[in-house]
Design brief:
This protein has 465 residues and is an alpha/beta fold. It contains 17 helices and 15 strands. It has helices spanning 15-18, 23-29, 44-48, 64-83, 99-116, 119-134, 137-149, 165-173, 205-214, 243-249, 272-288, 309-314, 340-352, 363-368, 418-426, 433-444, 451-463, and strands at 4-9, 33-38, 52-54, 153-156, 178-181, 199-202, 223-225, 257-262, 293-298, 319-321, 327-328, 336-337, 353-358, 374-377, 410-412. The mean pLDDT is 96. It comes from Flavobacterium pectinovorum.
């Protein structure tokens, strides 16, 4: 008799990994009955024809976001003290004192943080969050769905969504095993482990070490290294298009060599448009000296700002915009959802660009998977002023300490050297690919093409424990 697995989407971030890749196909080949437990506005049934159980009740307890922020601050305080490291302070977002309501909320939050900044305090706050979520109608609603459909296991596609807490508590209270997938390479040190599961699936040995380091309540036997499906599409030759086909579809010039500028969100890189402008100037200068280069600008999929527009308009001769194929399904940034078509677009942008430039994003790994270099911008812009976040702090984050060497990326630390670095990469005289691949293996794991298969094999182990 086949085992039924609920693949749970508390939000849309897991769609790319677990709905649009071959993850479902591999699971079905293994004999699983796969049902998507869907808390998003995206309809897997209508769009993809997948079996789904929609969660229509989206009501978390009104205090859950407040207590979740308290939990995060306390965990960061504990890490800062335990590891004697000020980096954890930089993961915190500032409190708001605008208006009486925000001021009172801030004072209440800071008071509870002060009284609970210890390992025991973390346990108390987590228990409080669980109690709040068990009191909601959503908890009862999800419990009833589980009782009706009787899955053998719930696989949660991200560990960081408060929308998942009540649903997973309902599963655990019914004795259904719960697996949480740790979604991103930087999540663990940032105190983004919102849910408590029976088992945790992580990308690599590095991430397993981090889970055990930061979460003493998790036992080693609960953590499995599976890899992530995130990079599997880069190895899918069915997605590849010839240079001529891809360029014709996207109005690119086959005589030019393209550099990808991968945009960032406003929080990570608030002055990102000026790095695009610097790259455009470097390319234009090189073209005046005999090069024939241009830029593909691929924005951050959830960036809805207009901050790049002036730079793009002023540099239309060297910049072509290829927007990610994501669709807005609501008014908020977290309701801009990926599409299956974007996997092919990203694959071919990587395949047909000479290299990528950006500020500290994981696109370094997307391009290394295609044996392409990456320039990381790491210099201040003159527009930097008080109240604007300096991008330099990004490279001090814990996840960047996983680099095997400074050569794992090409760092541009001075805009006056950018033109020369671009030229050297185009001439194959400068590259980070060798050390970048070592970094890729450390972060992503040793078998980036086998993650979906490993996840299903490990799910089988968890069901049979």
């Amino acid at each position: 008799m086949s085992k039924k697995v609920f693949v749970f989407f508390p939000d849309g971030v897991g769609l790319r990994n677990f709905a649009f890749t071959k993850f479902k196909e591999i699971g079905e080949e293994k004999g699983y009955e796969i049902v998507y437990w869907n808390n998003t506005v995206f309809s897997l049934k209508e769009e993809l024809g997948y079996d789904e159980v929609k969660i229509e009740n989206h009501t978390t307890h009104p205090l859950t976001p407040v207590y979740s922020r308290i939990r995060k601050h306390i965990e960061l305080n504990v890490s800062q003290k335990k590891f004697n490291d000020k980096v954890y302070e930089t993961y915190k977002f500032p409190f708001s004192y605008k208006g009486l309501k925000n001021t009172l909320k801030t004072l209440y939050t800071k008071l509870l943080i002060g009284f609970n900044s210890s390992e025991k305090g973390i346990v108390r706050i987590r228990k409080r969050i669980n109690a709040l979520e068990r009191s909601t109608t959503k908890y009862q609603y999800c419990k009833a769905q589980l009782q009706e459909h009787k899955p053998d296991l719930v696989f949660c596609t991200t560990q960081r969504a408060t929308q998942s807490i009540s649903a997973l508590l309902a599963a655990k209270d019914l004795g259904i095993p719960v697996v949480s997938f740790v979604y991103s390479w930087d999540n663990v040190p940032k105190a983004m482990q919102v849910v408590e599961a029976d088992f945790y699936f992580v990308w690599s040995d590095l991430m397993k070490e981090e889970v055990l380091k930061y979460y003493p309540f998790v036992q080693e036997s609960q953590v499995f290294v599976t890899g992530t499906p995130q990079f599997e599409p880069h190895y899918d030759q069915n997605l590849f298009k010839s240079r001529e086909e891809f360029f014709n579809e996207n109005n690119l010039d086959t005589s030019k060599r393209y550099i990808c500028f991968s945009g960032d969100d406003e929080t990570t890189s608030p002055l990102d448009q000026y790095y695009l402008e610097d790259l455009a100037k470097a390319v234009r200068n090189l073209n005046a000296k005999g090069e024939n280069a241009a830029i593909i600008y691929r924005k951050c999929p959830v960036d809805v700002s207009t901050r790049y527009d002036a730079v793009i308009d002023a540099n239309k001769d060297v910049i072509t915009v290829l927007d990610p194929l994501w669709k807005p399904a609501g008014k908020n940034w977290n309701e801009i959802l990926p599409t299956k078509e974007d996997l092919g677009l990203l694959h071919n942008v990587c395949a047909h660009s000479e290299f990528v430039t950006n500020v500290c994003s994981s696109t370094v790994f997307d391009f290394v998977a295609h044996d392409k270099p990456c320039i990381y911008f790491n210099y201040e812009q003159p527009q930097l002023k008080k109240g604007i976040r300096d991008i330099g702090q990004n490279y001090k984050y814990v996840h960047f300490r996983s680099m095997p060497s400074q050569e794992a990326a090409v760092f541009c630390t001075d805009k006056t050297t950018l033109e020369d670095q671009v030229k050297q990469i185009l001439d194959k005289k400068l590259s980070n690919v060798s050390d970048g691949k070592k970094w890729y293996e450390i972060v992503v794991g040793k078998n980036p093409t086998q993650a979906s298969l490993a996840i299903w094999d490990t799910i089988n182990q968890c069901i049979n424990k």
